[in-house]
Design goal:
Elements (H helix, E strand, L loop, with lengths): L4 E7 L3 H13 L2 H4 L1 E7 L5 H8 L4 E5 L4 H15 L4 E5 L4 E2 L3 H10 L4 E8 L11 E5 L2 E4 L7 E3 L2 E2 L3 E5 L1 H6 L12 H11 L3 E11 L16 H6 L10 H12 L4 H20 L2 H15 L11
Parallel strand pairs: 1-2, 1-4, 2-3, 6-12
Antiparallel strand pairs: 4-11, 5-12, 6-11, 7-8, 7-10, 9-12
Helix pairs in contact: 1-3, 7-9
């Protein structure tokens, strides 16, 4: 008997992106194979109406605009759990799985009772630049893992772009902390909780999806976002440097030693701001490229987190 699988897709005001995601799932047969649930957090651009028209088989759960990513995922997991889901699939609507990726994730998770699996995401279909996937906690930082097409790599946490989780994770660790980490870091914290509860977390190199890097997550040197805008991000839950969420993440992963990475990122913000007044950003970017080539010849590019 096939397991009951629910694809959970949190969305807000990007109708075209959401519809493209659902079209991709339909093309690969995933909408017929699994239950799809869109958690629409107060969209005003006609997203829900378009989904109802084009994809009537998709369930829509509605929020009031205050769920953010983690809250939306929580609502979706609560609904799917009540419906008897054996597995949940987190899927961001800007992440497009290739054919067979979702069945590969589910099949891999069914091979062990406490296993979570994430796909390896790439910037585009050239499959050259990895973007999202697994990570390992090393010291007071999290290192991005780039899984080759034949790899199955153990990791400590992963990005929430495309992840398969068993029902038992709710029984053991509960639901994601939507109040404490409304958007960024919600995925990492929840997967870390699962890891600490002895769940196996793996990234599958052969389970591939396409998702470009969010500009807000690029390194500060290479990102086109000016530093004054970075300072404004301190007030946005969407930002990786939103203090309440970042502190919660640091405490959960590093304990009281989390004060070190927490303080470092804001010190870094001050220093980068001062440096940009003195050194042109193009010079800084060029210096970084030279350093990366000299000291990290085998490093794989990945999304930025402080």
């Amino acid at each position: 008997m096939s397991p009951s699988v629910y694809i959970l897709i949190p969305v807000h005001n990007r109708k075209a992106v959401t519809l493209t995601c659902l079209e991709t799932l339909q093309h690969h047969g995933d909408l017929d194979r699994y239950h799809a649930v869109v958690i629409d957090d107060g969209s005003t651009d006609g997203t829900a109406e378009a989904i109802q028209t084009q994809f009537p088989q998709v369930t829509i759960l509605k929020g009031d605009g205050n769920l953010w990513w983690t809250g939306a995922i929580r609502i979706g997991m609560e609904y799917a759990y009540e419906q008897g889901a054996d597995y949940f699939i987190w899927l961001n609507d800007d992440t497009l799985p290739l054919a067979g990726t979702l069945p590969q994730l589910v099949n891999h998770c069914t091979q062990a009772p406490r296993r979570l699996a994430t796909a390896q995401c790439y910037a585009d279909d050239a499959l050259i630049q990895p973007t999202y996937g697994g990570r390992r906690v090393q010291g007071k930082s999290i290192q991005f893992l780039a899984a080759n097409l034949t790899d199955v790599l153990d990791c400590d946490v992963c990005s929430g772009n495309l992840v398969c989780l068993p029902r038992s994770v709710v029984d053991v660790v509960g639901y994601p902390p939507g109040q404490q980490v409304p958007q960024t870091w919600g995925d990492v914290v929840y997967i870390w909780w699962a890891k600490q509860a002895k769940f196996q977390v793996q990234v599958l190199g052969f389970a591939v999806a396409l998702c470009p890097i969010n500009l807000l997550e690029e390194g500060w040197i290479s990102s086109p976002i000016p530093m004054p805008q970075r300072w404004k991000q301190l007030r946005s839950p969407k930002s990786s440097i939103y203090p309440p969420a970042y502190w919660f993440y640091c405490r959960q992963v590093y304990g009281w030693w989390g004060i070190v990475p927490f303080g470092q990122v804001y010190l870094k913000l001050v220093l980068f701001t001062l440096l940009q007044w003195i050194i042109p950003q193009a010079w800084m970017a060029q210096a970084k490229q030279i350093k990366d080539k000299r000291f990290q010849p085998n490093a794989q590019p990945g999304p930025f987190h402080p």
